[in-house]
Structures are given as structure tokens and as C-alpha cells.
Amino acid sequence: MNIDAVVDDLPADVPELLELLSDTHPTIALAMARALDRAGSPGLRATATRLLEAIADDSLLNHEVDAIVSRARAAQPVLERWTDSQIDGLLLDIARAFAGCAEELAEATVAETGMGSVPDKTIQNRFASLGIWQSLAGQTAQGALSFDADRQVMEVASPVGVVFAVVPVTNPVATAMFKTLIALKARNALILSIPRQAARVGERTVGIVRDVLIGHGLPADLVQSVKRRGRNVTRRLMRHPDVGLVLATGSAPLVEAAYSSGKPAIGVGPGNAPAWICADVDFDRTAAGIVASKSFDNGLICGAEHNLVVDDCAAPLFAEALMRHGAAILTPRETRRFTIGAVDGRSGSLRREFVGQSAASIAAAVGIARPYPIRLLVAPATFPASDSIYQSEKLAPLLSMFTAIDEDEGMTVCRALLEVAGAGHTAVIHTMNAERVRRFAREMPAGRILVNVPGAQGCCGMSTGLVRSLTLGCGTFGGNSTTDNITYRHLLNVKRVAAHREPPADGPLPNAH
Prior knowledge:
The chain has 18 helices and 15 strands. The chain is an alpha/beta fold.
């Protein structure tokens, strides 16, 4: 057998596989590359050349990753000498600087990514800066956090060191600012990975932060962004021995990579919130809130409503209320037209060019019109839906609307929707029945149960008492480590100092043997 001919016929992805080998077993990969380079076949030599180039680039990449982490690690100890009051002052200056550019950065984000709404991103930017600062100011993030006199146990805070954080393309600037504030509050250095589609506005955001740090006499390298982007860079930063924690917001593969990196990680999952509309609520008020929520930032908020589940007896009146507030309830023919024109036939998800676009522009593109401005598209459906988009996450001002004949079916459909996608994230119920709320909370696999409140504004603590956050955990329901709204406390090591304690008055515990 002619081995050269066999290798020449190998699939085109062989060099990519050998490059992967160079990441996991570089010595073996280098030996293989040199052996291939000595072979007589032009195909083998070409493969060897590509592999040797990849190994050289790999070495440069390792150097770049080591350099950025080393700078962060060197800068971080400076913050440990600062008091909470000093850090709060620093964070206020960062928040003010960012809020002062909120609209400009919103415009730049929409222009660069092609997604979202400038007015709504401006609101998000202000919430992610001054709104988050208000929730952090005055909180203890160092030294003694608490002391339990009865148990003689004190909790003491310690930073995790260097945090590597990935931000999503849907909300890159606000998320980057939020993660900056909570990381610095916990006295950590931060390395941000900003998507390529938002690289320019991301760099401007990091530049604002670094200017404030320098103005306070602090190292600018307390907050850095990754210049070279790609899966290899992200993977190596996640695995770097001097990175203390990974904070990942993004796609399911990204979060999975964070959890498999061997590092402590906090990842978050997708949303697909069901909103159950019961017959005992004010339909007009509820409809106004849902339209405002799902149309906010053109539907990019993952904690907003994605599916309506309406009591069957209330469905006609609630549909009328939705229309009064700018929703277009699609006819069966319009739903088919939308599916053909706006849904990717292979993936079953919304076509990329419609993600984060306004309802009016999507409607115009697929030939749907109303005699009033369209703020939201609502597609009536039966569960399970014949097209997957109508029962999964929709990052656009689009909702599915199911009906339920009774309470049991309402619970069943809401739970089933979360099991399709979005488990652990958010579920919403609109009712005045306290027992129904308690049952809903018990049965829904969701980290946030919102009651009579719009999802987009409620899940992040903007209009509820939940911790203010732009990073929302989904717990084990969604393959995450926590159901919490992430804040600075998650970026701390908490030590417990325990003193000797006398046995209870009734004597020591019985011997287990």
C-alpha cells in the first residue's frame, strides 16, 4: 500500500485535528509534524507546514495569554490595601464616567452589532453603572462579613484574585460594566473577553474604566480586555493556573467549556420564560407590562417573557388587551408566512438577521401589517408546537401564545416549556391567588419566580427586590452552579473562623458506636 497516497486522501480536517493535538499534547504533535515534513508526498508536506505554523502560532498564543494574566495578577494585590469606602468611591467614579457616555455607547453598540434599541440600551447602560453601584455601595466585601455569637463563627472575605469573564454579543457593554463593578468591589482583577462583533465598543468601554483607574493611582491592568479572540484563546484563559474564577455569559457551548475547564466557574443558561396569565388579573395592566417587557431592547433580554400561557376563558379578552398596547396577534396564515420568511429551516430558530430587530421591521420584512404601530408579534400556538421556534427562546419581540383549560394544564404547559429550553432561568405568573403562586413556585424548575411583574425588568432586580444583576444563574435545572442573581459575593472566597465552643447544656452528642 502507498501510505503517501492514503494520507493525501485524508479528510481536509486532519490538520485541524493535529492542531488540536498540539494544544493537548504539544510534544507528540511537534514530532508528528517533523515526521510528516520529511515525507515525500506533497500532501504530507503541506499538512506538516500547516501544523508547524499552527504550533508556532500556538507558542505565541501561550505567551500572550501568560502576559495578560501576569499583568492582572501583578495589579490585583494593590486593591487589597484599599478600604470598602475607598473602593466604593472608585466604583462611583467608574459608574459616573460610564453613565455619562450611556447613550453614546448605546448608539455605538447598535451600530456595531446591528442588534437592539438605542433608547433601551441607554437605560441598560445607566442601570449597569449607577444602578448597580447603588446596590454595592456600603456593602462589606473585605475583612469580617459577619459574626454568629451563638456559634462563635466569623465569616471573613478574601478575593479570588484574577477573574476571567466572557460577555455576550447581545448586551456586551452593559454586561462588561456590570462585571467590572462586581469584580472590583470584591478586590479582584478582571480580564474581559468581548465578542468580535462588539470589539470596538468593548474597547471603548474598557478604556473608560482604565482611565478612571489611572486617575485613582491604580494600575490600569486591573481591568483588561483580550485583544486576540477565538476559542483557543478563551479555552486557555479559562484553564490558566493563575485565573481564580471563570464568569461566563454566552452560548451553551461556552458555558459548558467554562465548567469543563478545571477552574471554579459560574455560568448562566438561556432563557425561555413562560408567563402564565390567569383569569383573575387586570388584563389591560398585565398586557401593557408584557408588551413593554418583551419589546424592550428588541427582545434581547433573556429573562423576558418568551411564551404566554393564557387561561382559556380569558384568552379573547387578553388578546384584545395586547392589541390595545401594540401587539399584532398573528392569524394562522400570517404565522405560516412568518415561519417561512423569518425562521431558519435547518436550525428551527430565528434567522440571524432578525435577532434583536424591532417588531415593526420584522413585520414589514415578512409582509405583516396593522393599522397601528406594531411593538410586539404574538403567534398563537398549541403545545407541543409544530415549529420549534414557538416553544423555545426568541431573542426578538416575538411571543408564542398557548391556552390552558384549567390550572393543572397551565402548570403542565409552563413546566414543559422550561424543559424544552430555559430550565432554571425565569418563570412568570400573573394571578391574585396566593395558593396558585405557591404551587407555581413549587413546581417550576426556575431560579426566579416573578409574580405580577414584567420579566425583563423583574428578573434583574430593576423592578423587584431581587439582587440587581445582569448575570442570572440557572442552578442544576440548567446545568449551572447557582440559581442566584450573581453579585460581588460570588467573587469572594469566604473563610470561616471558628472558636472553641462548650458542648450543649444537656451534654455531648451520643457516641455513634
